[in-house]
Amino acid sequence: MMCNLRSHLSMTDPTPAPRTVEETKAAVEQFRRDYAAVKAQIARAVVGHEDIVDGVLICLFTGGNTLLEGVPGLGKTLLVRSLAQALSLQFNRIQFTPDLMPADITGTTVVRDGTSGGREFVFQKGPVFTQILLADEINRATPKTQSALLEAMQERSVTVGGVTHELPRPFFVMATQNPIEQEGVYPLPEAQLDRFIFKLNVRSSSRDELNEIVNRTTQGVTVKLEKVLDAPSILRHQHLVQRVAIAPHVQDYAVRLVLATHPKSRAFGGGEFATPQVQRFVRVGASPRAAQALVLGAKCRALVAGRPTASIEDIRGIATPALRHRVVLNFEGEAEGLTSDQLIENILSTVPVQAAA
User: Could you tell me if 34 and 237 are in contact, meaning their C-beta atoms sit under 8 angstroms apart?
Assistant: First the structure.
């Protein structure tokens, strides 16, 4: 379980690792140029939300899935579509609705006339067979339909009728969802939430941003984005992110942050690093995937800044989007009106950077 988040990358390394200091520097600079190029293309269509764009791009270059949450009309779908337009990748969109069925996502086996005159069973691929999948308003579908993406998000494959079909590489699910307070939504299962490397909360636009949105969309100007990055380049950058160095004490800090989300339990133990707030208000803490997300995200963040190693500040900078959807409040926490973001802030301010001797 500890390695399966990244296992699909090892089979698709398009280029050997840099062997010299010069090759490594060149690879890092190429990563930074490509990151900036994709971000610049998205900025031509999306106004503001720079932190959200950075979060989405970190997910892209670490090979993880992204969950965007916000009320309708904030540009979540536009952001994902703009990313797809800036990449030379296959792109499909699924609009999730209450009547959507699992087979509408994965595909199904159909019977058709064979070339020899008989009949044969043929698998008809669903829209999940792509490289970027936009799962729009994912929490408007039933839990049964939502679960159709579980295997695809984790294993990069789909099993139908006992036959496993591999998905293209790279493969990302970029999902949007409405806040659970809205009507007509179903909470995502915890197992599915855990498969998103980040959950990004999209805020409302500021006054200046809203004025710029109106200017761009009411004057008859159409923006056409350029494709600036292809699949081999993305896979190469993903492997570069994995090879970024991280000191043992920095990785241990990420591990302790994850363990700090675990309250003491008779059934599962834990609690060694839990803060008093976590012990009182948390029902379920983050899984090992959270530690993987923290380390990979920190490595990517270091590359973006041009640094050769991940730092404590890199871990802290992505802790909230990496952990917020993996911390489940208990009844008392919900009754108190607490949020997972507040608990993560408490953990960051309480867990020491240096481990006790």
Answer: yes
